[in-house]
Amino acid sequence: MNVDINELAHYYAKINISIIDVGRVVVPSGKRCFGGYTPPFSGVVFPLRGRARMFFNGVPYEMEYGKVFHAGPNMSLDKEVLSRSVWDFMVVHYQADNNEKDSFPYALAHFQLEPGYNTRINDLLHRLHSSCTTPGRLPELRAKSLFFSILDELVTSASQRRNQSGRDIVEQAIEYIKSHYMEPLTVPGLAGQYSLNSKQFAYLFQKHTGMGPNEYLIEQRVRRAKELLCTTACSVAEISACVGYSDPYYFSKLFKKRTGFCPSTLQSYLGKNTG
């Protein structure tokens, strides 16, 4: 399930939840368990050591430190340890108020977040485990507070990593466009290089540059065409081909729309003033 982090944060902020338990599990290397089910409440899995693969309702998740996983109640569950070392993780089981479950679909879903290597989450998690194994009302209150602190840190870190990842992708795409603007580039083709669909890629590009990828490509081509018109004796058709347009008529229309004058007019004007 794709997760909107802002929406997830909003849901957790408004719903009433109860913590059922917090457990730490150490599974031997090579251990496999198929045909199981998650408990009748939601759970958040925090890998600590080793690697494993879990299937929630048949969907596989590669589990390792730096990632956090959510599973809904009563889901089919298969799991296997992939690492040569033990698979060590903590899981927090919680339950949303019955009256709020319909308005909180994430509580019933499986999904993954990537906060990265965050020692503060680990510290809060161990404190939460300690509070949940200590009897009394005060530890119960402290546990709820710690759980929300963990959620806050989790969604904040995951959001920051997504933004950084998106920025890195856009920076790579910009460099690629600058080096390959003369080729027949397309948004689907560019997006595919980064394992994104066109909509996702265009959204990231717009977010980090203020313009769409097509707009940026055209800007680069027109800028280079201006340079060639000013510094070479190439024909308009040759320059059109040099900047990625096989149709010089289309190129001339586009150039005039972007600059206010035809490429042939600019070329003629420059020739008169340098002759």
TrEMBL record:
SUPFAM superfamilies noted in UniProt: Homeodomain-like, Regulatory protein AraC
Query: Which top-rank group of organisms is this from?
Result: Bacteria
Instruction: Mention any Pfam family matching this sequence.
Output: HTH_18
UniProt-recorded Gene Ontology molecular function terms: DNA-binding transcription factor activity; sequence-specific DNA binding
- What positions does the domain HTH araC/xylS-type occupy? 171-269
Q: Which InterPro entries match?
A: Homeodomain-like_sf, HTH-like, HTH_AraC
What keywords appear on the UniProt entry?
A: DNA-binding, Transcription, Transcription regulation
Identify this protein by name: Helix-turn-helix domain-containing protein
